[in-house]
Amino acid sequence: MCRLFGMSAGSQRVTATFWLLQAPDSLRTQSHREPDGTGIGYFDAKGRPHVDKQPMAAFEDRAFAREARTIESATFVAHVRFASTGALERRNTHPFEQKGRLFAHNGVVQDLPSLEQRVGKGMDLVHGDTDSERLFALISTEIDNHDGDVEAGIAAAIQWVAANLPILSVNFVMIAPNELWALRYPDVHELHVLERPAGAPLHQVSSHGTKIHSDHAAHHDTVVVATELLDDDPGWRALSSGELIHVTPALEVVSRTVVDGPPAHLLSLEDLEARARASQG
User: Fold this and answer.
1) DSSP per position, 131-173
2) Full-prediction pTM beyond 0.90?
3) How confident is the model at residue 239 (pLDDT cuts 50, 70, 90)?
4) Are residues 258 and 158 in contact, defined by beta-carbon separation less than 8 angstroms?
5) How far apart are CA 42 and CA 39, in angstroms?
6) Which of 175, 177, 181 is nearest to 46 (CA)?
7) Is 35 a residue whose pLDDT tops 60?
8) Strand 237-238 to strand 243-247: parallel, antiparallel, or no bridges (unpaired)?
9) Strands annotated E in 185-221
10) What is the CATH number of the domain that holds 37?
């Protein structure tokens, strides 16, 4: 199952080293189980999006470790991939960039011809083979259709997908320079959020008994979203099915339910072909 990570520090530029490399269940650790690709998305000091990704596991990618230690941004999205659709190529590796936003997805969406027809001209945004990038294009198209209202666009896109396409999960994290959105739907895969106030440096004891730490959040509030609990902080909360959270530039976490009830065509693992089933198990 692909793993998602997102973090926002509001208007402050920070690093995400602890969560990407050092936490007990960091993204690099998770990549031992998700070998098909690794990517980090962030914004530079001028608000320009950047995506660094490769179709290889994070623990094998020296660039991932270097970037995880040095990149500063107010928002991050990262992904470790266990492929369900699309070849193991860079263009199919998450995150994806569209219209100045960055996006990573966990799950399976089927009937891609119907999805592409719904996206229409927005398919010009798509460069790879994955269901994830097409889902992102639908969200981008609906945001445009709703005059730039991101939450309304997300709601319209997910409601249409839930009513019309066979899906296993459409969990995602999407970021802009100072904002983050995350959705869990339905409740097949978990997605968690942690609102961490400024305080003592993050620290844990590794499996070898060595104390590891990071100072990036010592003086700044942060909000973290992840597929798995990355550490033992008691503040982690699981999102509900259909729950969309918006982390504002002021680090306010605004929650709303954008779709009620199960999908009209909910897939089970048994419905998937062998490759997709292995990726989601």
Assistant:
1) HHHHHHHHHHHHHHHTTT-HHHHHHHHHHHHHHHSEES--EEE
2) no
3) very high
4) yes
5) 10
6) 177
7) no
8) unpaired
9) 192-196, 202-205, 211-214
10) 3.60.20.10
Domain total for the chain? 1
Can you tell me the distance from the alpha carbon of 277 to that of 128, in angstroms, rounded to the nearest whole number? 21
pLDDT digit string (tens) for 142-199? 999 999 999 999 999 999 999 999 999 999 999 999 999 999 999 999 999 999 888 7
pLDDT score at 205: 44
Alpha-carbon torsion angle 35, 37, 38, 41, nearest 10? -160
Edge-to-edge strands, sheet with 192-196 = 49-54, 37-43, 75-81, 3-8, 222-226, 192-196, 237-238
Token pair 């990149």: residue: 71
- The percentage of residues in the chain with a pLDDT greater than 70, rounded to a whole number, is 72
Q: At which residue do the structure tokens 């994290």 appear?
A: 173
Owning domain of residue 83: 3-280
